[in-house]
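A quick aside before the break. I want you to see a complete sequence-to-structure record at least once, exactly as it would be stored in a machine-readable document. Don't worry about memorizing anything.
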Amino acid sequence: MSMVRDIPAVTADATTDIMNKLTDLFLTFAKIGLFTFGGGYAMISVMQEECVNRKKWVSDEELMNVTVMAESTPGPIAINCATYVGYRQSGMIGAVVSTLGLIIPSFCIILLLSAFLSDFLKIKIVADAFRGIKIAVGILMVDAAIKMLRKKTFKPLQRMLVAGSFLIMLTSGITAVRISSIAVMLTGAVVNLMVFLIKNGGKGK
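That is the input. The structure line, written in tokens, reads:
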């Protein structure tokens, strides 16, 4: 009888742990979605602080890899990253909860502002604040890139690809000449693959 009575308690504890983890996922990504301006790239730095440094949900290497995959797949990069982290922690339901946590705050804010956004931006103090936010967003993006690059060991070819890609995108931004980031990534992938095949005699071993 004692063993039978213990089963509901274990089940209840397990259910509580699952709910606590899902709640933590939702609140963490809701905070990221609520307080991060500038879209997905700006959120990467905050995700690194929350998911890697504080929560230990993923490693720096995993976050870098999922950022690359998220950039290469359909959908906003921040949502793809949130979905991956949630899935790693609690499977499919974790992916759904994390994604909703990231989306809901932004959706609610945009919904509230959409009716009078044009008039809202005409207020001088608000317009000045948004100019400051743009600068902060740029800093967040650079900060995320620097942190991930510091913790990644690069081979000489990879360093050349990183430097080349940076110069290409920087030149694109300065000269206003449109260069697709997808084209840059595909070029890097092709170059790296070709070098790999050449070194391995075309056998891919």
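Two observations worth writing down. Residues 34 and 188 are 34 Å apart (CA to CA). The chain has two domains: 10-152, 154-205. We'll return to this after the break.
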